[in-house]
Structures are given as structure tokens and as C-alpha cells.
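Question (not urgent): is this output format expected?
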Amino acid sequence: MHERLTLRNKVALVTGASSGLGAHFSRVLAMAGARVLISGRRQDKLDQLADRISDNQGDVLVLPMDVTDEDSIRHAIVSSNENTGPITVLVNNAGVAYPDRLVNATEEAWDRTMDTNLKGVWRVSRAVCRNLLDLELPGSIVNIASILGLHPGFGAGSYAVSKAGVIHMTRVMALELGRGRIRVNAICPGYFKTDMNKDYLESSKGREYINRTPARRTGEFHELDIPLLMLASDAGSFINGAVLPVDGGHLLNSL
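Got this back:
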């Protein structure tokens, strides 16, 4: 089983790696043997993460890239091909969120959310997949969506719509790319405490909300490790177009 989950000889790119789930995913992929390329908005955080991974004998490189800038993505692909080898595992994790209802959302917030969460996933996936197809290499894409993309909830309208788009994009890309030996799947986390949501989750209202879920707690980061490795590695070689909630049964409730 351990051998099936290995990522040795794989080059993995994680977007939004500077903190939270992205930083955790980067460490997990490195522990599984991948050469990990980390990108994000905060250079200092990426450098700190790279040092921690290196200190644990992980193979890591900071890759400057902005998911909202097509030129930077193109340069990142060229840099990877020349310096580390082509990217064969992609974890699309970069995202932003605003506390809004759609009727109150500003157009600026809507555009930034869609540009990062939805169009950013498409931009990076397109570039990586074109490269894999040109080189006739197999690959795996894992899109980090959300249970809010599967079921509506109050308070994060633009974010929820963007993640619903990511989920359907996952299925469309899986259908289109399967014959090219590129698998595309999505993980839909429930509530895991990150910089993006910790203020709410630590509030009395947030604690009351979580206490109404079946698990009555938020997720622990390590509970995403096996789903990630299964979809990224050859252990999931016959899994394509899957959308996997990891939410402690939260979707069984009204969100």
C-alpha cells in the first residue's frame, strides 16, 4: 500500500502554498517523495515553508507564479521543464473568500473571487495539461473545492459559486483528458481551521454552528492526507472525475 501511495519521481506543483492547507499539502507531497514546487502570494512564507521541508529531507523549490497572470504561469511551466522536469501532479489550492451574500457582493469582490478561485484553476490546469499532452506524459490534477460548492450555505456566496464551478470543471476536464492519461479529481473539504476562517470558527457563533454538525468538530489537517495522496498517486489510477467530500458528514446536514 505504501508503495502505491508514493510520489517518487513526480514533480508536484501546489498553488496557494504559503499557508494553511496549501502549506500542509506541500509537506505531505514532499514526505511522499515528490519534488515539490510551491507557489503563492507571500514570498516570506514560501521561503519559511521551503526551509521546513528541506530540514525534513524534502525536495522543494519556490516557484514564482501568480494564478491570475497567464504570463507568469507560462514562465513557471518553462522554468519547471528546464530545472526540475515537467509538472506531473498539480494541486490547485489557491483561493480567496469574502464574507458576503450575492445580493450584497461588490463586483470587485466577485471578479477577484472568480479570477482566483475559478479562472485561476483553469489557467494553471490548462498550462500544465498542454505541457503534459505535448510531452505525451500522464498526470494527475487535484482541485481543492469545498462542500459549499456542493450545497449552498449562507455567508460566502461568491466563494460557493466559484467552488461549484471548480467542481463542474473537474468533471469536464476529466472527461476531456482521460484518453490523454491525465486524471482530474476534486477534494471538497468541510470546515478546517485556517487563516481564512479561524476568526469565525473561534467565535461563539462559529463554535455553535460546528457543534450542530455530525462530527461536532472541525477537521484535522492530517485527515486530508490519504485522500490527497490517493488522488495524486498511482494508487488512484482508475479514479477520474471524482468529487470527494472530506467533511465529517457535514453534507448530511443543512449547511
